[in-house]
Amino acid sequence: MRILVVGSGAREHALCWALKASPLCDALICAPGNAGIAKLAECRPVAATDLDGLLALARAEHIDFVVVGPEAPLVAGLVDHLEAHGIRCFGPTRAAAELEGSKGFTKDLCAKYGVPSGSYLRTTDADAAKAEIRRRGAPVVVKADGLAAGKGVVVAHDLDEALGAVDAMMLDRRFGDAGIEIVIEEFLAGEEVSFFALVDGTTAVPLASAQDHKAVGDGDTGPNTGGMGAYSPAPALTPALEREVMERIIRPSLAGMAAEGKPFKGVLFAGLMLTDKGPQLIEYNVRFGDPECEVLLRRLKSDLLPALVAARDGTLDRIALDWHDEAALGVVMAAEGYPETPRKGTAIGGLDAAATAAPTVEVFHAGTAHRDGQLVADGGRVLVVTALGSTVGEAQARAYRAVDAVRWPEGFCRRDIGWRAVARERTGGH
Q: How many beta carbons lie within 10 A of that of residue 126, not counting itself?
């Protein structure tokens, strides 16, 4: 098959890395890609949201199958656009992608079909939002309804912070049109995990669990980011809890989407809070998480490509996935100033040394470019350094050994990725 991967981040680098290994893959093209992806695939300068440009590229390259990485083109209807012209795609339709495109839509779906999730108010009125915040008290969660690159959520620990978030979203339009409508939501206490399932409209095949680290600083301090690192599996999500998530959250959501005339195909990414009342849904994403994708694919033993094709074709009931027993851990290296104004254009060296600094290391590029023969930072999150280990602790030690071999003074990372799992390992799981 001739494969086109859409996107330019470390998630897409990991997808290309996995798809390239498939014996079914004859040619691999990525649009627009990045400097790391260019070593695996032919990169073409077509933006992920250029629907007509991607259609033209797919036709010119006789593409058999398109794998869409990021959420923006899915919400914009890329899958509908390509499928209408006979090009097979992995990913949800525009209607089904509303699960990520509108947080209010997802909350309404949960309420209608009995999916456990926090209580909420959905509103386009700033005064109503502030009244709801005062009624609930802090802590409280304020979310922009639309896409905000993972940054449109404020977990406010006092009323002033929550009220300020309403002003920033609705009056200052910090997230543009994404903040025209906002959701005020119950604060859920517990441990957060990411759960992924491949879905073909009716059948859902669970993938592995992972845990992301959203806050920019060690000890979960500072503003939320798109994710500073992840590991898989997440020991907090036991096999019994995984069964409960499938029965109470994933399957009712898929049945609800089908009943609404918006059957979901692709990968469903549930952000979950493990509360004292059981798992509750925080939100859905309609694509692989980033950086979770990088650690999931490091652990996947099966060929990824037939599984993605089966999700599109409605034949997932014939697919069984095998996973490596080892844990995987990934550390995001970000540019100085991230998540506000990352510094671009700084030179990065030492990647060959990083790749050999410890066993099982694989470095995925998130925001890199080649300029004047040099690898430079070209985004906020720039590299994701991954490693496998017999325990999360071993994977962590290997990943940080590789991080320390990277020569990039203007880069930074969290030094505690995987801390919850490592602490559990040290205390025997308690």
A: 16
Predicted model pTM: 0.94
pLDDT digits (tens, 9 = 90+) for 321-343: 999 999 999 999 999 999 999 99
Beta-bridge mates of residue 142: 154, 184
- CB proximity list for 245: less than 8 A, separation 6 or greater: 195, 237, 270, 272, 279
Q: Is the pLDDT of residue 303 over 90?
A: yes
Class of domain 125-180: alpha beta
Q: What's the fold here for domain 327-426? A: Glycinamide Ribonucleotide Synthetase; Chain A, domain 4 (3.90.600)
The domain defined by 2-91 carries CATH number 3.20.20.300: no
Burial class of residue 45 (count of CB atoms within 10 Å of its CB; 0-12, 13-18, 19+): exposed
Q: What are phi and psi of 90, to 5 degrees?
A: -100, 120
Q: Which CATH class is domain 191-318?
A: alpha beta
Chain segment 149-180, per-residue pLDDT in tens: 767 888 899 999 999 999 999 888 988 888 89
Model confidence band, residue 429 (pLDDT cutoffs 50, 70, 90) = low
Give the C-alpha separation, 93 to 98, whole Å.
9
Give pLDDT, residue 178: 84
Domain boundaries, the chain: 2-91, 125-180, 191-318, 327-426
Strand, helix or coil for residue 268: strand
Query: Quick one: which of 387, 368, 385 has its CA closest to 377?
Result: 368
Cβ atoms of 328 and 347 within 8 Å: the answer is no
Which pair of structure tokens corresponds to residue 233? 């599996």
How far, in Å, are 61, 315, 327 from residue 198 at the CA level? 27, 11, 20
Q: Is the peptide bond before 342 cis (omega within 30 degrees of 0)?
A: no
What is the DSSP-derived secondary structure letter of residue 168?
Answer: I
